[in-house]
Write a structure and sequence with these properties.
InterPro entries: Polysacch_pyruvyl_Trfase. It holds the Pfam family PS_pyruv_trans. By secondary structure, the chain is α/β, with parallel strands linked by helices. Helices cover about 40% and strands about 10% of the residues.
């Protein structure tokens, strides 16, 4: 059996509770990462091949020679899906990955990496150029081509000396898991007050936040889908977000969307997809929040604000407008009416074929090759018992109560854990709290304490017994 090591948070069939996902930061701070890594997992899960998630181990640790030797001995390829990894904040992880790749004897394939810069950029920020060049060079020693998200990243790598013979634009794997025939269609009558809508937001985009706020009362069926680890922490434990935010943001538990129970945080793509498949429309600034909708055929409209979103939208022909320029009083119904999926539907088969060809060039067998289909993948996901979307407790109902009980069970974990806690702990003292000892006086000898009466009686009995034994 062939084995592929995949840079991914976890095995997609493994249920991980929201509390444990937060505690271990399973999804690397943004749940959108789960979408493209699981899509890659699905596409590579062909009969006779085992795909193994690496748990981001190479990002988080400097791997020792034993681990490198284990990877070389037990796996046939290392596939690394990435998002906007060409950015200064990801520099340390890139260096670690480069160090690992150089020590491997197996093929290494990069799927969907992107630059984070401005939309007209032709070069990466100077502080990461050398790191990116080292990384891409190490990868090309182990693969045919590097797959990038869009044309902006392609231009930036060309400036470093990596031409089209080294780089291929492939977009996002999340949109290829549904297959070559994916289409998105709108209804003929647009949105109404009863429409079910999903909103997403980057908590720095004020115009988009104002659009969402204006729609709260107008669309009672609108639900907000956050994606960051800090928002999950606030949902689970009520911890406020750490950074100061504009008052218009849905970023506190006092916001109407939280108070009315109209928030869902998804930890597994299948739950996300199931929810969005029942929506009429999705919109917002999160590129993967909108791709999650498009991948199940639900119309979506992106409010783009940087290169990592615009290059994917341009490549896939996802309808979008500038988040900085859009009017804050725009109604979601206007966004729905603007959205035209003619080009998206026409371009998808060609994009799909290019992505499949990229996998072929790099020697990766995938589920869209003849005889490699794997319909059991989705069936296994549906039966895996993955957790439902996390919701605020304010909304009430049986689902909210069950989530609260699950949270309490996770906190409890038995008496041994409770006794070891420090915050709010209690350590019993015999007969109450003992007084502090007084310092001893050393100016005069301390008189011997009188012998207790019981001790005196026992001593006399012991002497009498000793005399009898001697006689």
């Amino acid at each position: 059996m062939s084995r592929i090591l995949l840079r991914s948070a976890k095995d997609p069939f493994l249920p991980v509770s929201p509390e444990a996902s937060l505690a271990r930061n399973v999804f690397a701070s943004n749940s959108g990462n789960m979408l493209f890594t699981q899509a890659t997992h699905q596409l590579l899960s062909v009969p006779g091949t085992e795909v193994v998630a690496d748990g981001y181990v190479a990002d988080r640790n400097d791997l020792g020679p034993e681990t490198i030797a284990k990877i070389n001995a037990e796996f046939d390829a290392y596939v690394i899906p990435l998002a906007n990894a060409f950015r200064p904040a990801f520099k340390r992880q890139l260096k670690r990955l480069t160090n690992v790749i150089r020590q491997l004897d197996i093929p290494v394939v990069i799927v969907g990496v992107g630059a984070q810069t401005n939309s007209r950029a032709t070069e990466l920020p100077e502080e990461i150029r050398e790191t990116v060049s080292d990384f891409v060079g190490a990868v090309l020693d182990k693969s045919a081509k590097v797959g990038v998200r869009g044309d902006i990243t392609r231009r930036c790598l060309a400036a470093l000396g990596f031409g089209d013979e080294h780089v291929e634009v492939i977009g996002c794997p999340s949109l290829y898991a549904p297959g070559r025939d994916l289409t998105v269609d709108k209804n003929d009558h647009g949105l109404s007050a009863d429409s079910l809508i999903a909103a997403n937001l980057t908590l720095s985009q004020v115009n988009a936040a104002k659009i969402i706020n204006r729609a709260v009362d107008r669309y009672p069926g609108m639900v907000y889908i956050p994606q960051t680890i800090n928002e999950l922490r606030m949902l689970l434990w009520g911890i406020p977000l750490p950074q100061p935010l504009d008052d218009s943001m849905p970023a506190t538990l006092d916001h109407p969307l939280y108070r009315q129970g109209r928030v869902r945080f998804f930890l597994d793509p299948i739950r996300w997809h199931q929810f969005l498949a029942e929506r009429q429309f999705a919109f917002g600034t999160r590129i993967h929040g909108n791709i999650a909708a498009l991948s199940v055929g639900t119309p979506a409209y992106l409010l783009a604000f940087d290169s990592r979103t615009t290059e994917l939208a341009d490549y896939h022909a996802i309808p979008y407008a500038s988040a900085h320029r859009i009017a804050p009083d725009t109604d979601p119904a206007e966004l729905y009416d603007r959205a035209d999926f003619t080009e998206f539907n026409a371009r998808h088969p060609e994009n799909f074929d290019r992505f499949a060809g990229f996998l072929d060039k790099n020697g990766l067998t995938h589920t869209y090759q003849p005889g490699q289909e794997n319909p059991q993948f989705r069936e296994r996901l549906a039966a895996a018992g993955l957790p439902a979307g996390v919701r605020p407790l304010f909304g009430g109902g049986d689902e909210a109560i069950e989530q609260l009980l699950g949270r309490l069970r996770w906190l409890y974990q038995g008496e041994d854990i409770d006794r070891a806690r420090e915050a709010g702990a209690y350590e019993p003292m015999p007969f109450g709290r003992l007084p502090e000892p007084k310092p001893a006086k050393i100016s005069a000898p301390t008189p011997a304490a009188p012998t207790p009466p019981l001790h005196r009686r026992l001593t006399k009995r012991a002497r009498r017994l000793a005399r009898r034994l001697r006689s």
